[in-house]
Amino acid sequence: QRMRQGLAKTQAGLVGRIDSLLSGRARVDDDLLEELEEVLITADLGMQTTRQLVDAVEERLGRSEAADPQLVRQVLKQEMISRLAAVDSPLDLEQARPMVIMVVGVNGVGKTTTIGKLARLWTSRGKKVVLGAGDTFRAAAAEQLAIWGERAGVDVIRHAEGADPGAVAFDAARAAVARKADILLLDTAGRLHTKANLMEELKKIRRILEREIPGAPHETLLVLDATTGQNALIQARLFKEAVEVNGLVLTKLDGTARGGIIVAIANDLGLPVRFVGIGEGADDLRPFDPEMFVRALFE
Ligand code: GDP
What we know:
receptor; 8 strands; 13% strand; 299 residues; signal recognition particle binding
């Protein structure tokens, strides 16, 4: 239900427009397919995914046949579910102990908030969580993480502003082992204006984690702001090239009609969406389920 509310704008911007395109049409012809392509692109599905979806409609329904345009809706829905499902995989928290999760993404996308929400979610399920305040460039980031940590009742490893993020990673890894944590969540800085620098730094943090805990980081979660549409897709490509990203979090779905970007990013990059953010509150983070997501949009 909350998911449906969170997706209301995207539903209007994507499915609402598909529905008005289809209403009053008698057949699936070139015109219809062309307009459909335009609607999907404007709704942030991206070139590649739009092409694939329109091709699927054409393949399944044929051109100029007496196919009921309402079937277009069905094909799109099924195609989105199967494309998301093809890259979907649940986050396995049992694969290591401590399970080390490095959280990356540019400033402002919602990294710190997402870490806070995850700490709360997993603590409520009986997991022992430790947080590492690896974004040492913004004083507010460590402060904000400390507040989330306090609320969730978990330890936060933090250094002074401007400290070496590698040193935070090192201490956080040691602390997670010493305190027998199930999960270590490590925040990182996200200044994109120095891209090469940022990526180098993330690699360095990776190496430090690896050295302290075999196999770490077990998960590198990339956080993206859905309201930025195509920009999120561009960021995803950059990060995927530079660091080993295992999974995605799309935040701020509640504030945007651009939620279709989720399908574009997962499909284009072949990465699973692990969670979606649908509000600023502590409970406004949901595990991602392709079928549930697409149904919430279409039904
Ligand atoms: P960071 O710089 O990546 O760590 O970003 P923050 O965690 O500080 O978040 C930036 C802003 O986005 C804050 O005001 C958050 O409350 C807000 N935010 C994060 N996730 C969501 C979400 O899912 N929905 C909404 N509406 N706001 C969010």
